[in-house]
Amino acid sequence: MIRTHTRMRRVLPALAALVAAASGAAALMTPAAAAGTPRFLAPSELPPHPASAWFAGPVTAGQPDPLPMCVGEALPSTSVHRTYRTDYDTGALQVTVVERSVLRAKAFAALLRKDLAGCAKKVMEQDPETSANQKYYGRLAVEEGAYVYGVHTTTTWGASDISLFSVGRDGNVVTVVQWGQMGSFADARVAAFKKTTVTAVNKLR
């Protein structure tokens, strides 16, 4: 049982951990980290849930814990993040990184996109008991662009999770948004998530 939970923590969207982090709201961002931080999504700007409101944790300095699937290893210590939850098994995460230059931000966004383009393959390499497939939902015309991906994972013990990711950039600021719940591609709120992504990128300035 311990071994199974370890795998799930490493390769799945970690929805339960997102819920716990958002509801606990324990790690408030320091005043120094808060200075000049781009605005984050409000709960009402996330894809509507049919049976619950969204609730948000504090804007917090540093990498999220646990790290999000596939893009987590690339996130620097200078990240700032916020977690979101509903009353059900649906969670979300936004991570924003302010780079020192536009050139560095462009390279960082490209790295995140590369990680997401190979996400399903990486998940299966890390855990042979997990199967994954993915879809690319295209580029959104907002600021310097945003890109949307979907990843569906299933496990030998019966778990099935769908996650949507987006990477967007405005100047020297890059943001990643993740939404996830139990289900498959049929349950993905793609249109609503694209709208959320546009809002997230527009709020970076």
Q: Could you explain the architecture of this structure?
A:
With 205 residues, the protein is α+β, with helices and mostly antiparallel strands. The protein has six helices and eight strands; from the N terminus they run H-H-H-E-E-E-E-H-H-E-E-E-E-H. The chain has one domain (2-202): Protein Transport Mog1p, Chain A (3-Layer(aba) Sandwich), CATH 3.40.1000. Strands 1, 2, 3, 4, 5, 6, 7 and 8 form an eight-stranded antiparallel sheet that branches. Strand 7 (160-170) and strand 8 (173-182) form a beta hairpin.
Strand and helix layout:
Blueprint: H1 2-11, H2 15-24, H3 31-34, E1 55-56, E2 60-61, E3 80-85, E4 90-98, H4 102-117, H5 119-126, E5 130-140, E6 146-155, E7 160-170, E8 173-182, H6 190-202
Antiparallel strand pairs: 1-3, 2-3, 3-4, 4-8, 5-6, 6-7, 7-8
Question: How do you describe this structure in short?
Answer:
This protein has 205 residues and is α+β, with helices and mostly antiparallel strands. The chain is built from six helices and eight strands, in the order H-H-H-E-E-E-E-H-H-E-E-E-E-H. Helices cover 30% and strands 30% of the residues.
